[in-house]
Amino acid sequence: MDDILVIWDGPLSGFEDMVRTANQAHPTIKFTTEIGAQKINFLDVTITIENGFMNTNLYRKSTDKNNILHASSYHTPNVIRAIPKGQFIRARRISTQKKEYTVASNTLKERFIKRGYKPKLIDTCAKEVQEMPRENLLTYKTKNEQKCLPFVSQFNKNSKDIERIVHRY
Q1: Whole domain around residue 113: which residue ranges?
Q2: What is the helix (H) or strand (E) element at residue 46, kind and residue range?
Q3: Considering the entire predicted model, what is its pTM?
């Protein structure tokens, strides 16, 4: 088990007792705590309490590198195009406030451009996601199960031609 978030609505002493008890449950499993009354970073999210409401925003450690897949990587073009949109959607889901999404979006734009992505693609993805209602992005959507026969091959310079032939017939 790794990385547990506990929201505690009681006295600090009660929380400390709970952690102490949990740490006695198994000799090799020990819990550490990080306590924040108004703000805490957890995984890739900053959680804040403002005016009695919980807000979330993207969080990156200061030591994090720009490890976004490089645009010149040997992946299919549709994968390269999908990565920015997926990351902008992730930022939109996590950012409770629109202004926080704008900051996260601008940071993502810079990171993608540094990794060789075309600014036009990045701007298009960012704008498209910004116009999506956040509520829609937080709603689970069941996927229509389509019956298809997978065609698995190694990606190479002829892949587009093979794809066109398969779709034609």
Answers
A1: 62-138
A2: strand 45-50
A3: 0.78
